[in-house]
């Protein structure tokens, strides 16, 4: 699982070496969507936060200060957004391969399942994101099932 996440995050970072995070930087869009998912059910658990920070720390070659800045910028962008379109369109421009967009959903599901729970509102948020990214319902459900299996060590977790 970690290799899959690292490979995906690597695709987001390779051409970006600037010291500033541009508004259309796919890393900002990714962080904003992660916050949208984590905050969807009104309860951002410690496990979700830890999973999210570990994902960013493992892949992005940023100092702790720069990592905090990315998280702050992404969180602010997510808080100011009225919908997911801005972030998904930024990511769609960057993630031209459908498999990369499917992988993004898998990562979002991994964050959802970090606390061992999944809510209907989290389902809805990821459904909207998947739709805007052009990911099929079949792939969205498969990614959800795989994330549930990873979270429970192989059990479907009620799916």
From TrEMBL:
Top-level division of the source organism's lineage: Bacteria
Q: Which residues form the Co-chaperone DjlA N-terminal domain?
A: 28-144
- UniProt protein name: TerB family tellurite resistance protein
Which species is listed as the source? Neorhizobium phenanthreniclasticum
């Amino acid at each position: 699982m970690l290799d899959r996440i690292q490979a995906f995050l690597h695709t987001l970072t390779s051409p970006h070496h600037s010291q500033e995070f541009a508004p259309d930087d796919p890393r900002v869009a990714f962080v904003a969507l992660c916050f949208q998912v984590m905050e969807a059910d009104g309860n951002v658990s410690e496990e979700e936060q830890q999973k999210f920070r570990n994902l960013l720390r493992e892949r992005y070659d940023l100092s702790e200060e720069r990592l905090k800045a990315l998280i702050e910028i992404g969180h602010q962008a997510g808080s100011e957004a009225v919908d997911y379109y801005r972030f998904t369109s930024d990511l769609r421009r960057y993630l031209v391969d459908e498999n990369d967009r499917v992988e993004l959903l898998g990562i979002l599901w991994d964050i959802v399942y970090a606390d061992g729970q999944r809510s209907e509102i989290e389902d809805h948020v990821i459904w909207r994101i998947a739709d805007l990214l052009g990911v099929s319902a079949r792939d969205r459900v498969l990614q959800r099932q795989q994330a549930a299996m990873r979270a429970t060590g192989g059990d479907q977790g009620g799916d």
